Fold:
Amino acid sequence: MSLLPILRYPDPRLHKVAKPVTVFDARIKKLVEDMAETMYDAPGIGLAATQVDVHEQVIVIDTSEAHDQLRAYINPEILWASEEKQVYDEGCLSVPGIYDGVERPARVKVRAWDVDGQPFEVDADGLLAVCIQHEMDHLLGKVFVEYLSPLKRNRIKTKLVKEERELARSAQRTASR
Ligand code: K2U
Ligand code: ZN
Structure:
């Protein structure tokens, strides 16, 4: 298994729309394994293939306490969403250090396919509902900061671009020693 680099906002590749998976083969199984390892290492409770610069409709999620209930959602679709909404303080592995409230449907019914190409359905509420919708946004090229005000989003973009430049400078200094 391998750790995959996670794209950081505002990388334009985070806004690419993912394509459906059509062949459920060893490549997809390895992608799910590598995404899971990357997610647990971050640590996070979800990860979309878009975030590791693979633009196919693959998500991994594990919201369990013991971090031992991984599930892959391939070609996920929302079949139903509740009128009732919930606001959750979301974060994102592609937007490190930023958390803010996002309102989403409190409950969703999702159909997806597993790594063997078998379809399944999930009725999700609470944190799982938030995470599934957050990850499915990634597959549409949407990052949670897009739900925030333009002022907040621009401040976040400026902060992360500055951090990225500092990271690059310090890596250059280390390499030139
Ligand atoms: O997309 C990602 O970067 C994965 C998120 C999933 C997530 C976002 C918002 C709300 C719930 C899940 C990361 O796991 S963010 C880290 C995190 C960890 C525990 C609880 C909430 C967020
Ligand atoms: Zn995210």
